[in-house]
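Exercise 7. Predict the joint structure of the components listed below.
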Amino acid sequence: MDPKETSIPAMKDLTIDNITENTVLINSQGPDQRLTYVMERLVTHLHDFARETRLSTKEWMAALNFLVRVGQISSDVRHEFILLSDILGLSLLVDAIDHPKPPSSTEGSVLGPFHTHDPPTIEHGSSMSSDPQGEPCLVLCTVKDVKGNPIEGVKIDIWETDSTGHYDVQYKDLESPDGRCVIRSDKDGVFWFKAIVPVPYPIPHDGPVGQLLLLLKRHPWRPAHIHFMFEKPGWDHLITALYIRNDPYETSDAVFGVKQSLIVDFTSADAETAKKYGVKEGTKLLKHNFVLVGEKETEVLRDKNALAALKKLGRKVKLIDHLPVPDVD
Amino acid sequence: MDPKETSIPAMKDLTIDNITENTVLINSQGPDQRLTYVMERLVTHLHDFARETRLSTKEWMAALNFLVRVGQISSDVRHEFILLSDILGLSLLVDAIDHPKPPSSTEGSVLGPFHTHDPPTIEHGSSMSSDPQGEPCLVLCTVKDVKGNPIEGVKIDIWETDSTGHYDVQYKDLESPDGRCVIRSDKDGVFWFKAIVPVPYPIPHDGPVGQLLLLLKRHPWRPAHIHFMFEKPGWDHLITALYIRNDPYETSDAVFGVKQSLIVDFTSADAETAKKYGVKEGTKLLKHNFVLVGEKETEVLRDKNALAALKKLGRKVKLIDHLPVPDVD
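Solution:
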């Protein structure tokens, strides 16, 4: 925007009809075009929401108090705003925008609020769960590129609940991480570990997000799954999960994470596999091949999708640092 | 919506293009039509915002962490989400929607985050401020209806900062409320009290809202004002403020609260007034007549405005408990 146009308007007597343009104008004084654009869209949608619902003072106050509670129940190990974003479908949407997937690559899923930054690094074949009540399983995986070449040295974060459907951080007396690990792929792209068969579980519903679900007559359940996160420089960061087929919540995941391509079947280890991997014959077995996409390829696809989508929305934009801003030239 | 239409869709493989309709559908299972409508508009705007900005995972995470901080700095005496709503123009907008004002009535202004529920009730003529550094002033007011009839027994909450621009609750060692009071209008609609001449002050900018203002190159200042809130059964709740003319921030209030009709002048008490009200001659004097609107009259006007505005927006609605919901019959 031309600097001459950004002089602050005389902001008096603001009304239902002119408050938006004035707020946008006063928010447009900074040099960061991306921030200006994001704030312009944010304020416009926020105000349109209030105008279209004729939001009452009572509802406004209830919403602001709700948001305070969402912030206040959050901690180092519980991010209630991520949970709120999850149940509103925003998390899935943002992941789909930021991590477009070409055909044959592994699709993304929601991060959820329970990823932590201090899991133990384990060797191939170790167990990531110490829950004696869990049904043991063997997980044999590879990580490759779209052409089938193995990718070595990928850092893989894996996390799942215990057999009661709780993550380690949900226990107040937790002494050390459990049900989570970091593992690295070998030169053949292989990584394997022992875990427990995942179970469906409700997302934490003892807080404000649970109250909202209750008001909306929605259940808080997620189908059984194991989370995976893949990181290696040069490769697009992949956050995903594997879901177990025929879970009762397969088609009604409270956080919208399930994708057909991420639904997997357990088989059981035959004698040879059992011997090779040091498990009992008949142990539940999960085999999966993950496919990563190059960072550059993802960037090109993301840019292309952004420009196409915004053109379709009738917005004239250009990309700065791969993010859209209005193209006013 | 017909119950048959609200069966949960098979929510798998949700994409940028279908996540919104599916989220809306799963949020539409409850019996509360107003909640369903508000959530439908909320989810639609939230998702459109992400699609129009192609919101990145990094920006999404930064926003969620910002919201956690807004919640966590909030307390019984600091509501950072109200402050956030204030600087985004939402507070002014909601007040304008909920409290429409017919001509000749007193306009509303923003509540702000510093109203408290425990101010001392004072007698007419008492002082609401004990700040010896403040410039004393005498405030003589009436509260009447639009026809000029006095309204007796209105509960009036009044609050202002001290001479340094801080509200009492901003002091950690506060022993008792200061700079705030409750007073009641007499049979002539009169209420009067002693205060100090208000000063401009910055809204609290040591928290996340202050950081946002900094990013946006916005100043945090509000022009000098005194807050007033009027309550009496049968009368529309009035939240307003009086602003002192020629304040340097008169046209750039950080929270968009100033209205021309709320800008007032100080005069000074002449000998007669000084004697009558027990102040020194020459004491700064503020006289103002407030005009309340009947609750019923406001309700009728609010309903009329809502229906007209939504018709203009092309939305077919009906009112339930005076709030719009889609009219699908």
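Discussion. Chain A touches chain B through 86 residues (CB under 8 Å).
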